[in-house]
Amino acid sequence: MSIISTINGLKPEIIKRVSAELHKLKGKIDDYEIAWKQLQDISAKVIIEILAENLPDTCTLSSPKSKSTYPDIKIETPEGTFAIDALGLNITYCFGDLERNIQ
User: What φ, ψ does residue 27 adopt, rounded to 5°?
Assistant: First the structure.
C-alpha cells in the first residue's frame, strides 16, 4: 500500500506545518468551542495541501464541513478509500462496512 507509506512518511512535515499555522493563532481565540473548530479546520486544510502536493493525481481529497462528521479528511484512491483524523493523524482504511486502523 504505497499511499499509506507516503502518508506515514509525511507525518513529520504535517506536524511541522500544522504547528506553524496553529502558532499564528496564539492569543487570538478565547472561546473553547471556536478554538477546537479552528484547530480542526486549520489542521485539515494544511494536511490536504501537503497530501495534494505528494499524492498521485488519481487521489481525491475532501474534508466534510459538518463538525460532527468523521473523518476530518477522506482520501479516495485506486488502492481504496482512506480516512485521516487530522488531530491524531490516525489513518483508517475503509472498505464497505469494514474499517481497519493502519499505523
Answer: 80, 0
